[in-house]
Amino acid sequence: RAFYIMSAIKVSGTGCCLVDILYNDINFREDKLRKYMSIRRGDGGLSPGHLVFREEFEEFCKQTFDTALNEITNGRKPNKINIGGPSIVSLINITQMTDINQCEVRFYGRGGNDEPGRFLIESLRKTKVRLSDFRLIDKVTPSTVVLSDPGYENGHGERMFINSIAAAWEYGPEDLPNDFFEADLTVFGGTGLVPGIHDNMTSLLRKAKKKGCKTIVNTVFDFRNEKRNPGQRWPLGESDESYALTDLLIADREEALRLSGTESIDSALKFFVGKKTASVIITDGSNEITAWSDGSFFAEKGLYRLPVSEKITEELKYNREGDTTGCGDNFAGGVMASLINQINAGNRMPELREACMRGIVSGGYTCFYLGGTYFEEVPGEKQKKIEPYYAAFREQIKG
């Protein structure tokens, strides 16, 4: 099952792509936020690290979204408007961390034919991601309001998300053209915010495998299914066969627990292994990551645990210009960029530990700027800036 690729590696991605509207320096402990905070799981209230839908949030707080946002932010304008979404942000990071002559990254999805949608298209054209089938339709563009508290969790920072699925409701399996599956890697990112894709993941993964693609799934908090069945296990497609059809699953702790219906990272990992997932990476904020491989996709077999970067953690004590938005997305992009670079270097079976190391510094570096997407002034700029952190991390974990 090793990679045998004679030309540029083709990556096809679909899933969450939206406009991020970012408000930094929101104190989650302020009294005025109490009435907006969740009381019980899936009730539509705000919760650190979690996502809610705009409609559910309005129902919870019994007022319009604009009124609530105005109170939460003291009526100020957002700090930044940016490209967001677990799919597109991770794909953009791949193009910034690989040789573009050896990797072709394509995105498939929908936006709305409105001002945010036109902003999205214009911004995406500044990146090296090919918009193979990304079109604007007569709907509202998907968006997420991101409330960020850099001081939360002893200075590690956290965010709360209010999402509007909007035009993403209109995108499903029937919209994915055949050339999506003419790829070496098919990547499904944050599909919980693209219901038509998410609910048909098993069929899509099966088709990708039949076409000879390697499959990667990086998840997002699935508020839609959490709302339907609070506290119950989240589905991934039509059946649990999705896991056996996945070569690499990347999830954060909360997502892993909800997908597996378990109460610890080790139990979640046991669930995914039991479902025959080829490899799994579970992140946990500022805590160590957990990774496992059966040796079929990555060269190694077994379990790995790696800490976060000490150099990045130390520098963040003095650098308050960024936030944690997009850390997980850039982690996933860093992992994928690493396995692509390893394959291009002649390593037909990439190393999981090396991929995780690149993911850790790539995700951590995101905290130095506001919003998940980094726009380069010159090609290779981001990779050059991250390299010293990678070198320091190698030293940190030596032995």
Structure description:
With 399 residues, this protein is of the alpha/beta class. It has helices spanning 54-61, 65-72, 86-97, 115-124, 152-155, 195-198, 201-210, 223-228, 241-244, 253-260, 265-274, 310-315, 327-344, 352-365, 381-396, and strands spanning 9-15, 18-23, 51-53, 80-84, 103-112, 130-137, 143-149, 158-164, 185-189, 214-218, 248-252, 279-284, 287-294, 301-306. The chain has a 9-stranded mixed sheet, sandwiched between helices. The protein has a 5-stranded mixed sheet with strand order 3-8-7-2-4. Strand 5 (103-112), helix 4 and strand 6 form a beta-alpha-beta unit. Helix 10 crosses helix 11 (265-274), helix 13 (327-344) crosses helix 14 and helix 14 (352-365) packs across helix 15 (381-396). The mean pLDDT is 93.
Summing up helix and strand content along with how strands pair, one would put the structural category as alpha/beta
**Straight-line N-to-C gap:** 30 Å
In percent, how helical is the residue content?
25-40%
Uncertain ranges:
none
Mean pLDDT: 93
Strand content: 15-25%
Helix-strand sequence: EEEHHEHEHEEHEEHHEHHEHHEEEHHHH
Give the helix tally.
Answer: 15
Radius of gyration: 20 Å
Strand order of the largest sheet: 6-5-1-9-10-11-12-13-14
Shape: globular
| Main sheet specs | 9 strands, mixed
